[in-house]
Amino acid sequence: MKTLTTHKMQKEQKHVISILIIFLLIIFNCNSQDVNDDYVILNKIIELTSVSKGDSYNLRKRINADQSDLLKYYDYRFLNKPFYTILKDYNEEKDSIIYDSEKIQEKRKNRWDLKCKLVDSLFTKYDIENFIKPHEMLSFWEKDRVNNASLVKNTGNYISRPYYREDYKYAIVLHYYNGKKTLYILKNNEKLGWHYFSKIDNLWF
Asked: How far is Cα 47 from Cα 57, in angstroms, rounded to an integer?
């Protein structure tokens, strides 16, 4: 009886170990796919933004290095906060700051709404919250997997890590060049893989 019980326990332990191995393999394969997707998307952005072969780019190691612009979008979309306000004057008598008129702000809001329309339709609140939450430090980019570009730390031309929608059908990438901010949206499908879908120039202005 004791032998049968021991055999049963060993069988159950093997079953549990098998499940754990399968689970770890799934995680490993998913992480490997994430990394491969990162490079596919990175090379697409370089292809879209490079002026000449061998352009220099500063690539972000941490996924949330460019969090502030996405945080502004989150605040605008879900907390109804403006992307920015412009200080016009200061009233000494009332000790108060004077901002743009409501009419000017409304014009800006109309422009922002148009710019945000596509992102609003493609990404949920859950997606955006996942984009702006703290993420772990990722590994450095491998230079031999980056096409037609050199990687340097100090340059005004840099690309963020991709931010993926929950179902991995769309991704956002931020590109900054000499103060100009552009948000690229890429789409993933079975035939084309990751490909350019749309972009927002002069982000949030």
From this structure: 12
DSSP 8-state symbol, 155: -
Q: Give the pTM.
A: 0.73
Would you give per-residue pLDDT tens digits along the chain (205 residues)? 545 455 555 555 555 454 444 433 333 333 444 568 999 999 999 899 887 766 788 776 655 556 788 898 999 899 988 876 666 555 556 555 555 666 667 777 788 888 899 999 999 999 999 988 876 666 667 888 888 777 777 677 888 889 999 999 999 999 988 888 899 999 999 888 999 999 999 876 6
- The H or E element spanning position 47 is helix 2-49
* Strands 193-200 vs 170-177: parallel, antiparallel or unpaired: unpaired
Residue with tokens 């949330």: 64
Letter string b/e over residues 58-73, b meaning 16 or more CB atoms within 10 A of that residue's CB:
ebbeebbebbebbebb
Residue 154 burial class via C-beta count within 10 angstroms: exposed 0-12, middle 13-18, buried 19 and up:
exposed
- Residue for token pair 């754990």: 20
For strands 193-200 and 180-189, give the pairing.
antiparallel
Question: Rounded to an integer, what distance in angstroms lies between the CA atom of residue 3 and that of residue 76?
Answer: 67
Hey, is 190 helix, strand or coil? coil
List the one residue out of 149, 168, 167 whose CA is nearest residue 159: 149
Backbone conformation region of residue 175, classed left if phi is above 0, alpha if psi is from -120 to 50, else beta: beta
Q: Where are the domains of the chain?
A: 37-200
